Amino acid sequence: MKNSLFGTLVLALVVSAGCEDVTETDGGTDTGVSDTGVSDTGVSDSGGGDAATDTGTPTCDLSAGEERRIGGTTAGGRFSPGSDQIAIVTFEGFSATGLEVLDLCGDSVSEIATGDSPRPYIAWSSDAATLYYSNADGVSMVPAAGGTPAAVVADARSMDLSPDGTTIVYADGGDLFTWDIAGGAATDLTQRGTFPRYNAEGTLIAFADGGMLRVLTVSDGTIADITSLDSAAFQPLDWFSNGDLAIVSSTGIERVDMSGTVTNIATVSAAQDIDISPDDSTLAYRINGMLPTILLGL
User: Fold this and answer.
1) Beta carbons within 8 Å of 20's beta carbon, 6+ residues apart
2) CA gap 158, 166 in Å, rounded
3) What is the pLDDT of residues 72-105, one digit of tens each?
4) Cβ–Cβ under 8 Å, residues 88 and 119
5) pLDDT per residue over 152-181, tens digit each?
6) Do residues 265 and 278 make contact, with C-beta atoms less than 8 angstroms apart?
7) Measured between alpha carbons, how far is 248 from 116 in angstroms, rounded to an integer?
8) pTM for the full model?
9) Domains and CATH numbers, the chain
């Protein structure tokens, strides 16, 4: 996995507690982030109570268990298909103002879709040319190199893009839908749920449904219950390439296989916005509060 330290980079991002833009209802709640008074003036943060540090030495590879912080206060980190970039939501004061793409093996930071108000739900096209993201109006798309956003689907909150780029799965009012991008039509999956995520093959969709982690088979719509979810935790999730899932509990981030066996990845409290790099080498997450994104080598 590639990553970098941005010793001179300041991402002055502040996330408001209880902000409507990052709240899911009816099947999983992300209450946003609380302002704990922790400030971050660069890529190193001494607050937050965890061991992530920035030594000031650029590196492109994290060893297992090694942690690295990037940016200031961040939201919605999502690795690119090549695992060498990460897209995050940017903030000014209490307002989300756009997206940035950070090159994890270099020094570059690209501002994307400035002036928009994204929620922390982001997806990359398979060729890394396009970013899809939720905002106050629904889901929009924008070139990953920057440009003018274009609306794709209205009234969507948490969302993901299928690996083949043809379909968006999203939550609206606690119900799950898919959107055919070419045809411009929605399909009601007749299933309550939030935080949907496709697996790498696009054959399965994992989602949170109240206190349960469930997986929907795309081909026939069958649903399997995997494990119960911690009601005290935020419920974003992601897939490993072998079909295991990463979920959040009240005490950490867990790995779950399809039999429901749970293994701890990281012991942290109030984790949010988790994402596994496509090469399975790195976990990205943030802590609820004014803290940067943490990269953890797996």
Assistant:
1) none
2) 17
3) 666 788 999 999 899 988 777 667 777 889 888 7
4) no
5) 999 888 999 999 999 999 999 899 999 999
6) no
7) 28
8) 0.78
9) 20-297 (2.120.10.30)
